Amino acid sequence: MKKLILLAFVIFIAVSLPDKEPRNCSTFLIKTGQDVFLGHNLDESPELFVPGLVCINRRQAYREAITWNELVAPPREYEKAIVAFEKKPAPKLSWVSRYGSVTFNSEGIDFPDGGMNEKGLAVFEMSLMESRYKYDPALPTLFMSLWIQHQLDNCATVDEVVGNAEQINLQGWSWHYFVADRSGDCAVIEFLEGELVVHRDLAYPVLCNARYSQELERLKYFKGFGGMIPMEMNFSRAPRFVKAAKMLKDFEGSLPGTPRERALKILDEIKIEGWNKWGILIDVKNMTFYFHTGDNKKLRYFTVSDADFSAGKNDRILNMHADLTADVKAHFVDYTYERNLELIKKRAGILFVERLKGLEKNGINARVYAERFADYSRRMRRKKVNSKKTVIPGSLPDKGN
After folding, report:
1. Which of 80, 115, 172, 373 is the most exposed place for a label (fewest CB within 10 A)?
2. What is the predicted pLDDT for the residue at 23?
3. Measuring CA to CA, how many Å separate 253 from each of 157, 204, 262, 270, 301?
4. Sign of dihedral through CA atoms 366, 368, 371, 376?
5. CB of 265 within 8 A of CB of 255?
6. Low-confidence residues in the chain, pLDDT < 70
7. What integer pLDDT is reported at residue 140 of this predicted model?
8. Which residues does 141 contact at the CB level (< 8 Å), separation at least 6?
């Protein structure tokens, strides 16, 4: 009887743990033998449509810093900010991409939700409402989606990204980040109460929408992880982190199928039914990207060769929701401003309902919002690289001048 009471108490505590974070995304990593698979779900409220753009970003592309405040500034202030960049006192940041990358974007090219570069470094975001980015006036500031692109442009390892995170202020939405590289090394990067928090040597390489430390605490209540709650009781209703941890633990044992099939199974199990907008699986070793979307549930894929990233070539883009199947590599088209803007704006009145809250006073509607992102990408491609003003790839500007 005492055991039953204790078990009931433990279950009550476990299911009562705070779970107020938005249930938006999840990412996991599997390393088995020589294979490394990385999976990512983007989940969003069923009434919202999320455009999806797959981008093949070339090497030697010029980019410069822009902040969230600048992107959503009132029209006159926005124009001043764009003109003022060259005259901006230190610290400012511009760079030329060292590595090519494949990214998955909802705000258009240059602004990824996540992706992987040709060296096998991957960065993906997940919502974390508790996020509070640090601010050091001596450091440059980046809109955090562009910060992801900056890492993919300049870094090859998790160690490099972690070191870089100390040197740039992030600004924008409440995200935390899962970072992994070709070796299977991975880390969680969070910003809590204005301080950088990094988790390394992850016992369970999974990240959802709660602090990583909180997820580990909740996991301890479940059988097989130190607790008493049987996983078989109601697996479908277990927290996503717990389900993923259990499946990763069983990956080499009881899960059937090939490593890719098992990874796809985990991706499917931890999505939020009815909310899933994107599902992405990356075979890191073979540079093969698999994906499906809420609008097109067929599994599609493409493999990227080094030649796709050659400097001087056009960036390439693909609508993730297009009615395609199987190998889609032949369906990528050259980036143009018009194509980029069209894909960002598609059903924009639905997509940007939440992201536009509070921006009306700045004169920002869905059309203006989409054009701001598209205009940034066009300006970067029109600028000529000035070696005297452009930061060496992978480095940061001097704090003095």
Report:
1. 80
2. 66
3. 30, 16, 11, 19, 27
4. negative
5. yes
6. 1-23, 86-90, 232-236, 252-255, 352, 384-401
7. 93
8. 65, 67, 135, 168, 169, 170, 171
Instruction: Dig out the tokens for 72 from the structure.
Output: 């959503």
Alpha-carbon torsion, ordered 314, 315, 321, 322, to 10 deg:
10
Question: Quick one: pLDDT at residue 396?
Answer: 45
Q: Is residue 289 part of a domain?
A: yes
pLDDT digits (tens, 9 = 90+) for 335-390: 999 999 998 888 777 776 777 888 888 888 888 999 999 999 999 999 865 544 44
pLDDT of residue 232: 65
> Whose CA is closest to 366, among 374, 146, 338, 376?
374
In a domain, 152, yes or no: yes
Q: Tokens 């997509």 sit at which residue?
A: 351
**Contact criterion met (CB below 8 Å) for 155 and 98:** no
- The structure tokens listed for 361 are 């006073």
CA pair distance 38, 116, nearest whole angstrom? 10
Q: Do strands 326-327 and 300-303 pair parallel, antiparallel, or not at all (unpaired)?
A: parallel
Of 54, 111, 64, 52, the C-alpha closest to 316 is 54
Taking the C-alpha atoms of residue 362 and residue 378, their distance in angstroms, rounded to an integer, is 23
Q: What is the pLDDT of residue 81?
A: 80
Buried b (16+ CB within 10 A) or exposed e, 332-358: beebebebbbebbbbebeebbeebbee
Identify the pLDDT of residue 86. 66
Helix axes 366-382, 337-345, angle to 10 degrees: 160
Which pLDDT does position 101 carry in this prediction?
A: 97
Q: Total domain count for the chain? A: 1
Please count the other Cβ atoms lying within 10 Å of the Cβ belonging to residue 269. 16
Any idea what the CATH number is for the domain that residue 318 is in? 3.60.60.10
Q: How many CA atoms lie within 13 A of 371 on its CB side?
A: 10
Its pTM stands at: 0.90
pLDDT of residue 179: 98
Distances (CA, A) of 263 to 255, 282, 336: 10, 10, 35
In a domain, 328, yes or no: yes
Which residue range(s) make up the domain with 218?
2-382
Residue found under tokens 């601010």 = 135
Any domain includes 392: no
